[in-house]
Design goal:
The protein is α/β, with parallel strands linked by helices. Helices cover 51% and strands 7% of the residues. The protein is built from eight helices and five strands, in the order αβαβααβααβαβα. α7 links the parallel β4 and β5. It is globular and about 55 Å long. The two termini are 23 Å apart.
Amino acid sequence: MSGRLAGRRGASAPLFLAAAVQTKSRNFRIALSGATGTGKTTLARALADALGLPLIAEDLVAVVEARRVFLTAARESSAGLPAARDAYLAAADAWLHDREAWRTALPGFVADRWGIDLLTALVSSGLGPAHDKRVAGWIAQCQRYARHLDLIVMPPLVRFTDEPRNEFGLPRASALGPRVVDHCLIRGLIEQFVPTPRLYLPDSVRSVEARVEHVRKVLERLPPRRVVSDVQA
């Protein structure tokens, strides 16, 4: 697994497995989705601390860079377009594989973004009919992953931070239009394909503390997760 836990590079899985086992709370599996700048990472960290769970960091640097190269090549009708597209899809597959590996390794976690966020970027990247089978595979992969989650949390589409870049140095979308599109696509994909309980935080819940408390109350009402095998899924 090449992803990051708790925002610390090079952390070993056994350390966080021990932390998860020792927590007094139930080993919830929570994933956060949503548009850029809405406070997902801040909330994910706060939830992980409050629930005593490991945090799976976003870690999308390689995917975002590969997507930028691909979209640039597509705009310029570059001869390097096929190679750029292949590199982008390979980076996406590797990120999804890492997410699945962490899901298998950890009994509980808070994930800052998951497959549905990446699927949103992929389906809006202009992939042609030749990639329909691959897109269908990504959807099925997201559905399998979702069946092992307790809750999906999506912050409201309000600007939570004005910082131009996130913790990984990636630029945030500053214009409202792209953020609205991302928000609607993510929510639409969740509603269409995901069987997991989800919480769409209301606009009125603005502070991190209030958001954590809101999620806590929902978690208290959730029934125990029914373990679904990958074969059944």
